[in-house]
Amino acid sequence: LDLQPGARVLDVPCGDGRVAIEMAARGFAMTGIDISPGMIAAARDRADGQAVCVDLREGEMRDLPADGSFDAAYCWGDSFGYMDDAGNAAFLSSVHGALGPGALFALEIQMLEELLERSYRPADAGSVDDIAVSIRRQWDRGTGRMSVTYDLVRDGTTATNHSSYRIYGLAELLDLVRSAGFGVVECADEAGRPFAPDAARPSDTLRLVCRKQG
User: Is the pTM above the cut of 0.85?
Assistant: First the structure.
């Protein structure tokens, strides 16, 4: 993001503050926004535990401060695409309004059509500590959405959760960010190489950098 010392940076959605707290520790003025009260509470606990200052706010990612006060923003950890097309477009437009002139926005995505074409599995299973995890996926290429069901089992008790993702192709995604008023600066993988899902060493993550225009 070509950040300068003390830059005002927006992390949205920030989750439990994993990235925002590290950025604050490196000297940036961080703001993290997330819709989950539990995540914001966890982020505050982490920030206090590491003695760093982060402005953590509970809020909707489509309703960001439209004051152009941020020098940069990012949406990290594959946190884009949970809404419908109108909602995803509204999020990008909201980020645009929160950024100052010419500011950069970075977006990290693994749930991309070109990446899923070679890695998609309809089911997975494993465990986390004492929780058995079963995952079932249904990818409807016609609608461009993937529905995911998570079964979490501990001590004989099962909790079931559901998620739905909008799976964009790269061209669709670039059209969406341009429609929100961004110019595309870079499409890279997690190692900083040009994004190339079909290369001999294929990418498993897209990191897209955009610049606010207008």
Answer: yes
Residue with the two structure tokens 């993988």: 189
**Tokens 């341009």 belong to which residue?**
178
Please return the burial class of 32, using the count of CB atoms within 10 Å of its CB with bins 0-12, 13-18 and 19+. Answer: buried
E strand intervals along the chain: 8-11, 29-34, 55-58, 70-75, 99-109, 123-128, 131-140, 145-154, 157-166, 182-188, 206-212
Is 73 within 8 Å of 98 (Cβ atoms)? yes
Residue type, 114: E
- Residue 199 reports pLDDT greater than 80: no
Q: H helices of the chain, where?
A: 18-25, 37-49, 85-98, 113-119, 170-179
Phi first, then psi: give them for residue 168, nearest 5 degrees: -90, 150
Q: What angle do CA 74, 75, 81 make, to 5 degrees?
A: 150
